[in-house]
Design brief:
- Two copies of one chain form a homodimer.
- Chain A is built from seven helices and five strands.
- By secondary structure, chain A is an alpha+beta fold.
- The first copy, chain A, has a single domain, classed as NADH Oxidase.
- In chain A, strands 1-2-4-3 form a four-stranded antiparallel sheet, sandwiched between helices.
- In chain A, helix 2 runs antiparallel to helix 5 and helix 3 packs antiparallel against helix 6.
- Chain A is globular and about 55 Å long.
- Strand 1 of chain A pairs parallel with strand 5 of chain B.
Chain lengths: 215, 215
């Protein structure tokens, strides 16, 4: 043990709950850049995530090339149009099409997060029956990054309207990696404690107590 | 917007980083019970997680029956013995067998987390091509719960050495649910800023910079 265990008081607990309440999935960014020092802080926090077998299977690909960014944005627009066509109810399709679902062209920073499905680290512990634990570990790292961003006033938008193999090919990453997320990072144009999909009438929050059962 | 956006200062940022550094996967619990008020606070925090389409697909099953608990513990012991047999290197197999990998018999609270793979909420948004986003949303909820526990001095251990269909049957949950995690919750016997698998020489942390790439 390298230092004394920290004590977190009730004020911290309340601030932490505030952080969770005010974390949003951001699709509207202003043009301010994110300092490289902040980007490093976010990735440092991400790497403190739990991982199965301590495998640390997350791989972060920072997209720095304008052409690559545009190719990703165009790909997501295409996939989103395809998803829209699946709504047979016309009003719902119109509603879907009215939503802004990504900020891939505006966000100053883009990170594609991949999972190494065959990491040497961890030596297979904990994944014999649930191999998906590697991917879940990457999700935990993203959440650390997300919260570390929000407390700095930096927003994050998680884009999932993608065809993972297409993004894999576009970014030319190793064959053992699988795509987990495409992240847009930057300063949000709006700040709210209400999810955008709730503000726009797509889906309300429901009581958490409806989701708890006993056995 | 229902209230003024909170400001998080650098002291909070440092405390948050401490929280991440001191969050552990806990397998050794003492016998103190967790107050029901705390359990409610943890589940409230979990429900503030992001979810794809705001689908809130997490389902928490609290295991309250001693027989069910023992059946789960016996199942995990069996799966762990099976996983051990896969290590052909004898020293590694012995090392694996020397690790304590769950506290299912000692932890005062057990929660099985499932994902509803066909939730009505969210109306399919964001999952046309990546259906796994529903499961990832449940992982995000678990991480909120994990951090909310740690800041209260409460430990959490995520058990993944299970055969998901067996646990599904054991807990008799709806057919559309899939198992994400088995969580042991209680006060930890030890507190450390170093992962147990690192303390025991299974797997060290590696530099996060090795996991960042550019395109």
């Amino acid at each position: 043990m390298s230092q004394t265990s920290p004590f977190f008081d009730t004020e911290f607990a309340e601030q932490f709950a505030q952080l969770l309440r005010w974390r949003r999935d951001v699709r509207h960014f202003d043009r301010r850049t994110v300092a490289e020092e902040d980007m490093r802080a976010l990735m440092t926090c991400a790497a403190l995530a739990p991982s199965v077998g301590n495998a640390q299977p997350w791989r972060f690909v920072r997209v720095r090339t304008p052409d690559t960014r545009e190719a990703l944005a165009a790909h997501v627009d295409g996939q989103s149009a395809l998803a829209a066509s699946h709504y047979t109810d016309q009003a719902q399709q119109d509603h879907y099409l009215s939503l802004k679902l990504h900020g891939l062209r505006e966000a100053p920073e883009l990170i594609a997060v991949f999972c190494d499905e065959q990491p040497e680290a961890g030596h297979g512990l904990g994944i014999a029956t649930m191999h998906e634990m590697l991917r879940y570990s990457c999700v935990l790292a993203i959440h650390n990054l997300w919260l570390a961003a929000r407390l700095r006033g930096i927003g994050l938008g998680w884009v999932s309207i993608v065809d993972p193999p297409a993004v894999h090919a576009l970014l030319d990453v190793p064959a053992t990696w699988s795509l987990i997320a495409l992240l847009c990072i930057g300063y949000p144009a709006d700040i709210s404690d209400t999810p955008e999909l709730e503000q726009r009438g797509w889906q309300q929050r429901e009581p958490w107590t409806d989701r708890v059962f006993e056995r």
